[in-house]
Amino acid sequence: RNARQIPEEQARAGVYRLQERLADMLGDTKLEVVQSGSYHFVRTEPMEEEQASDICQRLKARNQDCLVVKR
After folding, report:
1. Residue 8 to residue 18: CA distance in whole angstroms
2. Model-level pTM greater than 0.85?
3. CA dihedral sign, ordered 37, 56, 33, 44
């Protein structure tokens, strides 16, 4: 999928919907909206790489884009 520009408040509403829809997978994982240029992305709180990879694979299985990034 191509990234698209959306207003920040729409991105935040999307985070809320993701937390509701994926609560069984994300549990208490905190999500935040971050801006990069004109785009907004959803990022989780820091976690171990193995845990992040597991969650990412399960998100992809539900047709949700995901990328594990090392900081």
Report:
1. 15
2. no
3. negative
**Phi then psi dihedrals of residue 34, to 5 deg:** -125, 150
- Check residue 46 and report its DSSP letter: P
Are residues 66 and 56 in contact, defined by beta-carbon separation less than 8 angstroms?
Answer: yes
Task: Show the tokens assigned to 40.
Answer: 């907004």
Q: Are 1 and 65 in contact (CB under 8 A)?
A: yes
pLDDT per residue, tens digit, the chain (71 aa), is: 445 567 778 888 888 888 888 898 888 888 888 888 877 788 889 999 999 999 999 989 988 888 999 87
Contact predicate 15/31, CB 8 Å: yes
